[in-house]
Write a structure and sequence with these properties.
The protein contains twelve helices and twelve strands. It is α/β, with parallel strands linked by helices. The protein has one domain: Rossmann fold. Helix 1 packs across helix 7 and helix 4 runs parallel beside helix 5. The protein is globular. The two termini are 37 Å apart. InterPro entries: Epimerase_deHydtase (IPR001509), GDP_fucose/colitose_synth (IPR028614), NAD(P)-bd_dom_sf (IPR036291). Catalyzes the two-step NADP-dependent conversion of GDP-4-dehydro-6-deoxy-D-mannose to GDP-fucose, involving an epimerase and a reductase reaction. Keywords: Isomerase, Multifunctional enzyme, NADP, Oxidoreductase. Pathway: Nucleotide-sugar biosynthesis; GDP-L-fucose biosynthesis via de novo pathway; GDP-L-fucose from GDP-alpha-D-mannose: step 2/2.
């Protein structure tokens, strides 16, 4: 990849896409293409075809997706499967038709079975039933992996897939109901401190274990994976298990996360756990040996990453209050 290569980042306003752009610019890439959802409807086959025919990008980072936490996945399953299937199908197919040789598709750790062996190795894919609360989203992401694999096999292109663990950081979605666990809890703790509340309620039992990766680490890993020579990448993958896990390889309980967030936000009250809310998958820890062997490891520790994220949240809290 030359520094003047035309790079299209789909989903550039999202948490991951914006982080990828920041890091691409930092290392000297200056020919980056973006389109907002108002400028380009990624669910429209015709609009995506017209865009690729006009722009002819050299490289594509496919970070666009409809995302959300347990509540959002439970409430809008049809939207989650439809929109994600359409976005990835349109972009991957038009990338092929318009001569894009290198593409990176970003998935999710929810592709693995609910009761997958821990830590989850890439070969666990399709080895069991998915977690019901996010099954539609997970099926769409699995389809994206298989699209990349199939286009590689049939057309000889170089389309890769990276499966991140739970992400957090700058530009996260802090909606009180439709966000993921870290931004939802961080907002709850922040508002409790502001309001002088003596209690913060945590959804679920607090027992499930989760792994968290700062979005800046995810962006660095994405660029690293995309830049690898094909022969190096292929040495650690195969055409039917071509995706790579991206994470820290370290997890914690939701209770431990809540306690860390209490320290970060300086909340002095009590933690209560609402067991009427679903826990989701008992544990989701990624095995990241494949990525380590390729030469990359995460660098941002959880508490430090949460402190950085909280500073960003406070600077943008007024803008996010109605989000």
């Amino acid at each position: 990849m030359e520094k003047d290569s035309k790079v299209y980042v789909a989903g550039h306003r999202g948490m991951v896409g914006s982080a990828i752009i920041r890091q691409l610019k930092a290392i000297g890439y200056n020919n980056i293409i973006t389109r907002s959802r108002h400028e380009l409807d990624l669910c429209s086959q015709g609009a995506v075809a017209e865009f690729f025919q006009k722009e002819k990008p050299d490289v594509v980072y496919l970070a666009a997706a409809k995302v959300g936490g347990i509540h959002a996945n439970n409430s809008f399953p049809a939207q989650f499967i439809y929109e994600n299937l359409m976005i990835e199908s349109n972009i991957i197919h038009q990338a092929y038709l318009n001569g894009v040789q290198k593409l990176l598709f970003l998935g999710s750790s929810c592709i693995y079975p609910k009761m997958a062996t821990q830590p989850m190795v890439e070969s666990e894919l399709l080895n069991g039933y998915l977690e019901p609360t996010n099954e539609p989203y997970a099926i769409a992401k699995i389809a994206g992996i298989k699209l990349c694999e199939s286009y590689n096999r049939q057309y000889g292109v170089d389309y890769r897939s990276a499966m991140p663990t739970n992400l957090y950081g700058t530009n996260d979605n802090f909606h009180p109901e439709n966000s993921h666990v870290i931004p939802a809890m961080m907002r709850r703790f922040h508002e409790a401190v502001e309001n002088g509340s003596s209690e913060v309620i945590i959804w679920g039992s607090g027992k499930p274990m989760r792994e968290f990766l700062h979005v800046d680490d995810m962006a660095a890993a994405s660029i690293y994976i995309c830049h690898l020579e094909r022969k190096v990448y292929d040495e650690f993958t195969d055409e039917r298990c071509s995706h790579i896990n991206v994470g820290t390889g370290i997890d914690c309980t939701i209770k431990e996360l809540a306690e860390t967030l209490a320290r970060v936000t300086n909340f002095q009250g009590e933690l209560s756990f609402d067991t009427s809310k679903p826990d989701g998958t008992p544990r989701k820890l990624m095995q990241v040996d494949r990525l380590k062997k390729l030469g990359w490891t995460a660098g941002i520790q959880l508490e430090e990453g949460l402190k950085q994220t909280y500073e960003w949240f406070k600077e943008n809290a007024l803008d996010l209050r109605e989000a």
